[in-house]
Specification:
Strand order of the largest sheet: 1-3-2
Largest sheet: 3 strands, antiparallel
Distance between the termini: 19 Å
Helix content: 40-55%
Structural class: mainly alpha
Number of domains: 1
Strand content: 5-15%
Order of helices and strands: HHHEHHEEHH
Number of strands: 3
Radius of gyration: 15 Å
């Protein structure tokens, strides 16, 4: 299961829309490692003048890797995090997460990161099974 949804939040979702704040809080509480990585890369971006920041350290276990995969592979979760943090997220190699300022999307660094070439250049034998 991707998210640990409280009965109260599930009931609200069943009867109508939930707020972004409620949804993001559920993501934060359900996927703490993914939250830590994404909020960290966003903080790094905020502390710099760069148009992007990334986190490339492999997760300590498959459980944490699974959290990143669930957070960034889900359109709803990923877009909720992007709205919450005001960034565009990019993902490679089942653990490399980057945050881009909205103004940098479609720029050279973003295009290099999300390109097939960028993906191929970031491969290594130890990442084959990740």
């Amino acid at each position: 299961m991707s998210l640990d949804v409280s009965p109260a939040l599930l009931a609200r979702a069943a009867s109508g829309e939930v707020t972004d704040e409620e949804f993001v809080a559920c993501v934060r509480d359900s996927l703490p490692y993914a939250w830590q990585v994404i909020s960290g890369v966003v903080a790094d971006l905020g502390d710099s003048d760069s148009d992007f920041a990334d986190h490339a350290t492999p997760p300590p276990s498959e459980a944490e890797r699974g959290q990143l995969l669930r957070a960034l592979a889900s359109d709803a979760i990923r877009s909720g995090l992007e709205r919450h943090f005001g960034v565009t997220l990019a993902f490679q190699n089942c653990h490399r997460v980057a945050a881009f300022r909205p103004s940098a999307v479609a720029g050279p660094r973003h295009q290099a990161f999300v390109s097939p070439r960028g993906q191929l250049l970031n491969q290594s034998p130890e990442l084959r099974d990740c």
